[in-house]
Design brief:
The protein contains 13 helices and 22 strands. Strands 11, 14, 17, 18, 21 and 22 form a 6-stranded antiparallel β-sheet that branches. A 4-stranded parallel β-sheet has the order 2-1-3-4, with helices on both faces. A 4-stranded antiparallel β-sheet has the order 5-8-6-7, with helices on both faces. It is an alpha+beta fold. It binds adenosine monophosphate (AMP) and glycine. Residues 119, 143, 152, 155, 157, 187-190, 194, 216, 226, 273, 284-285 line the site of adenosine monophosphate. Glycine binds next to loops.
């Protein structure tokens, strides 16, 4: 069969590679793709991931047997609905279900209504009301979140009133995230190790993937600005079997059931961002899609044919599938452009990659690259995701870092402490 993947980052590169391992797959197309993906899938169609009409027309031309919609914005905009209406088989939630990521107010109200553990919160529509609330409260730090999508940057942890006022001003008055900031959620600040758990679900069964840990801040020691993610490891050593059972009972199944009760059956990959607090695991956020860069460490550990899983989800018989994982660990180090997540240059030549954009002993997922005349050039803030597997976390990290040191471009930047804290908790 032929598969069309929508998206163009490291996550989509990881999906393309896993899909290419399926014996059932003949051809893979990807739009918009990137330099690395273009070595493994047909790209260059000139259709953006958010262009719903463009993607439907492309699908009509290519006639794929399955379309995998990976990024949040097309899912929230209803790309899966449009593709289904045009008669295509899809992987990803429809618009009604993708709201679980598209609106923080929706997801917080859902958790409250169905008793799913999460941070306490208040919702505000009017800047005057939120300013009064943050002035009157003595519970600092407070967490301020824009309601809608904001490229992972719509969350501010304000240490004091001044920082909270600045956040409200930029989100609600200056509208730095556009209409995403018309409403805000002000949340209780939680502490504890963070775990990402991506789950396959057809809206009936829930099958968690191997757990992982993201590193969101730009600099070593969890300092600097929040980014889209600077590195990941899997499995997450803080996520014990006991905690996994508790999450299934109190969080995963109740969420799927809650979505069904609201007539919003979720089919696809549901991402649970969890914090393991002293009161038990709590939901920090839901994403309606594979995480980036979590996918880059989770999918290399998947043994089962991903096409079988995706088709079972579409056909709503996921419970019939036995999903197997390698008993190994994976680590991914993101090489970013100097300046990211703020201003950075693009078009810089990348050294240290082979003709396929790869390096020895590791897989290099491309996040933001362009391929031109035999060379790879930077084309984004996060550029490469250097990923290794190993018999344990230390082995995976050592292999990934030795490859990272051999890859370079002008002003490249990466964190040197990915997995460091996890290693201290790891007994494998
Ligand atoms: P998000 O964009 O929702 O993933 O949030 C970004 C990061 O902000 C999360 O990974 C957490 O580290 C942090 N965060 C979000 N909500 C809270 C909270 N209620 N308490 C503490 N940290 C939070
Ligand atoms: N790694 C966080 C996300 O995909 O949103």
């Amino acid at each position: 069969m032929n598969v069309l993947v929508i998206g163009g980052g490291g996550r989509e590169h990881a999906l393309v590679m896993k899909i290419s391992q399926s014996k059932k797959v003949d051809k893979i197309f990807c739009t918009p793709g990137n330099g690395g993906i273009s070595q493994y899938a047909q790209t260059g169609f000139g259709v953006k991931a958010t262009d719903i009409d463009g993607v439907v027309s492309l699908a009509k031309k290519l006639r794929p047997d399955l379309v995998v919609v990976a990024p949040d914005d097309p899912l929230v905009l209803g790309m899966v609905d449009a593709l289904n209406e045009a008669g295509f088989v899809t992987f990803g939630p429809d618009k009604a279900a993708a709201i679980i990521e598209g609106s923080k107010v929706f997801s917080k109200d859902l958790m409250k209504k169905y008793n799913i553990p999460t941070a306490g919160y208040e919702v505000f529509n009017d800047p005057a009301d939120v300013l009064k609330y943050i002035t009157d409260t003595d519970k600092y730090p407070v967490v301020i979140k824009a309601d809608g999508l904001a490229l992972g940057k719509g969350v501010v942890i304000a240490q004091n009133l001044e920082e909270a006022q600045d956040a409200v001003k930029s989100i609600m008055e200056d509208k730095v995230f556009g209409e995403s900031g018309s409403q805000v959620v002000v949340e209780e600040f939680l502490t504890g190790p963070e775990v990402s758990v991506l789950c396959f679900t057809d809206g009936i069964a829930v099958k968690p993937m191997v757990s992982s840990m993201d590193h969101k801040r730009a600099l070593d020691g969890d300092l600097g600005l929040n980014t889209g993610g600077m590195g990941t490891i899997a499995p997450n050593p803080y996520y014990t079997d006991k905690i996994a059972d508790e999450c299934m009972e109190k969080i995963f199944l109740p969420t799927i059931n809650a979505m069904n009760s609201e007539n919003r059956r979720f089919k696809g990959c549901l991402y649970f961002g969890l914090m393991l607090t002293s009161d038990g695991p709590k939901v920090i956020e839901y994403n309606c899609r594979f995480g980036d860069p979590e996918t880059q460490v989770v999918l290399p550990l998947l043994e089962t044919d991903i096409i079988d899983i995706m088709m079972a989800i579409y056909n709503e018989n996921l419970s019939d599938i036995d999903i197997r994982w390698k008993n190994e660990a994976a680590a991914c180090v993101v090489i970013a452009s100097g300046g990211y997540p703020k201003k950075y240059e693009t078009g810089l030549k990348i050294d240290g990659l082979d003709a396929m954009g790869q390096a020895e002993n590791v897989f290099v997922y491309h996040a933001g690259t362009r391929y031109d005349d035999g060379c790879f050039y930077t084309a984004g803030g996060r550029v490469l995701n250097v990923t290794a597997t190993g018999e344990n976390l230390k082995a995976a990290l050592d292999t990934a870092y030795s490859a990272v040191e051999k890859i370079s471009f002008d002003k490249c930047h990466y964190r040197r402490d990915i997995g460091k804290r996890a290693l201290m908790a790891d007994n494998s």
